[in-house]
Design goal:
- By secondary structure, the protein is of the alpha+beta class.
- The chain contains 12 helices and 16 strands.
- It folds into 4 domains: 104 residues, Beta-Lactamase (2-Layer Sandwich), CATH 3.30.450.20; 104 residues, Beta-Lactamase; 81 residues, Helix Hairpins; 154 residues, Histidine kinase-like ATPase, C-terminal domain (Heat Shock Protein 90).
- 46% of the residues lie in helices and 23% in strands.
- The longest helix is centred in the middle third of the chain and has 51 residues.
- The relative contact order is 0.05.
Length: 495
């Protein structure tokens, strides 16, 4: 290193510079720099001039006369230490380095720069590949409806992706927090979820829960499956808790549908068993009087009075068997979708009178009072008179069966717009609320009244509903519960 003035006068030289020039550092001060250089004086003067006017490092080259050999070219780095004043020229510091060493340093630096560039490029490629992989993963997860969450501990503000926000009904302008997370959960699921989170962070096991999320705006409920895992530091303290969510609402609904279906099948199977037991009982009841009657006729063939009485009894029992068999055939036709009706122009009043005649004996035997309110103005229907008579006979028969002796049954009809509405009401035992939704199902029967035994196959109302619907109508039931009676209303389109 040399200290020189802007005019080239050497002020000082460190031992390294003097030794390299084969000179004593004490002899260099005061000498002219240009006397030691093989470079043109003008080039040296220009270099010194540039150093004197720049506050930055100035690079150059100087060829020095060595005392013991050929001139040697050095790299020169000039720096302005003190600017010119009125009393003194500028003072410069010049660092000298042999050009060969500088070249080696530059080559080493270039090699390091090249290595660094290659490393940077490799890292950049790896980062781009990672980003691309992450983008593909995010695309796949979004495609299948999976949301991600990345949370630092302790849990406070949460980091949710867009899909997780959607799953928890959180808009983009709201910061998710642990309090908001628990607030979105169904009240019954909050404590189990808290326990699952705490256990997962304490044990390192996978966090796996199913919980319900409630939309605060609409009250809609969504089922979410959450999976997560804690990350630990060297001291095994949890520092992160990350994972994913996905919607399992449809899966839960399918599970519920399967449970409902299994329950319905079990109920249907029970009803079938009850139906078969009832059928056996109902078929056996008429057979006993018929068999007894045949025996009486054989034993008292010469007694016309006894024979005639037995024939009447047997005839009624045969009619009962015919009704049961017809109902069974109709059940089969409904099950296979082959039940047909033969429509014609009929008067509603004629149909209702036929139904009253068909059930009069049951109503009279029970001591019931039958009230009728049928408009005198003809009400014409496009219907199958036999099937409609079957519908109203069934309703009147049920009213008589499920009303205590001495009760009241009312049959009324009216026209409302384009419909005829026929109602059969009674003051009987009524229908429990839980039974009303099943009352029209096949093989469904109410529990028998306290003072009665079960009767019938449990197919009458199901047949009535199917027949009414085949006529383009509907049937409805109303009851205020046990002891409050019931009312069945049939609505049919008028002709």
């Amino acid at each position: 290193m040399l200290l020189v003035t802007g005019e080239g006068r050497i002020v000082d030289a460190n031992p390294a510079a003097a030794n390299h020039l084969a000179r004593n550092s004490g002899t260099l001060p005061g000498e002219d720099l240009r006397e030691h250089l093989a470079d043109p004086p003008e080039a040296v003067r220009q270099f010194l001039h540039n150093c004197s006017r720049s506050s930055e490092l100035v690079l150059g080259a100087m060829t020095w006369h060595r005392g013991d050999g050929e001139p040697e070219k050095w790299r020169a780095e000039g720096t302005l230490l003190e600017a010119r004043t009125e009393d003194a020229p500028p003072l410069l510091m010049i660092r000298l380095r042999p050009m060969a060493a500088a070249g080696r340093s530059f080559r080493t630096l270039n090699e390091r720069i090249a290595d660094l560039n290659r490393e940077i490029q490799a890292r950049r490629c790896a980062e781009e590949a990672l980003i691309a992989s992450g983008d593909r993963l995010e695309f796949v997860l979004n495609a299948i409806g999976v949301g991600l969450w990345f949370n630092e501990l302790p849990l406070g503000d949460l980091n949710w992706d867009q899909r997780t926000r959607e799953l928890f009904f959180v808009p983009e302008d709201v910061q998710p927090t642990i309090e908001l997370f628990y607030d979105r959960l169904h009240p019954d699921d909050r404590d189990p979820t808290r326990e699952a989170v705490a256990t997962a962070m304490q044990t390192g096991n996978t966090y796996s829960v199913q919980h319900r999320v409630i939309d605060p705006a609409s009250g809609a409920i969504r089922w979410i499956r959450s999976l997560g895992l804690a990350t630990y530091d060297q001291d095994h303290n949890p520092v992160r808790f990350d994972g994913l969510n996905y919607d399992i609402t449809e899966e839960k609904q399918n599970e519920q549908d399967l449970c409902d279906l299994a329950e319905q099948l079990s109920l249907a199977d029970q009803r079938k068993n009850d139906f078969l037991a009832t059928l056996a009982h109902e078929l056996r009841n008429p057979l006993a009087p018929i068999r007894t009657g045949l025996e009486v006729i054989r034993m008292k063939a010469d007694d016309p009075s006894s024979v005639g009485e037995m024939r009447e009894i047997m005839s009624r029992q045969v009619e009962q068997l015919v009704v049961l068999i017809d109902d069974l055939l109709d059940v089969s036709r409904i099950t296979h979708g082959t039940l047909r009706i033969r429509k014609a122009s009929v008067q509603l009043a004629d149909v209702l009178r036929d139904a009253i005649v068909a059930t009069e004996v049951f109503i009279t035997d029970a001591g019931h009072e039958l009230e009728t309110s049928i408009p005198e103005t003809p009400i014409e229907l496009d219907a199958d008179p036999h099937r409609l008579t079957q519908v109203f006979s069934n309703l009147l028969h049920n009213a008589a069966k499920y009303t205590p002796p001495g009760g009241r049954i009312r049959l009324s009809a009216e026209v409302a717009g384009r419909e005829a509405r026929i109602t059969v009401a009674d003051n009987g035992y009524g229908i429990p609320p839980q039974e009303r939704e099943h009352i029209f199902e096949m093989f469904s029967q109410l529990a028998p009244p306290p003072d009665r035994i079960a009767a019938g196959l449990g197919v009458g109302l199901a047949l009535a509903k199917s027949l009414v619907e085949l006529h383009g109508g509907r049937i409805e039931v109303a009851s205020d519960g046990p002891g409050a009676g019931s009312a069945f209303t049939v609505s049919l389109p008028v002709r």
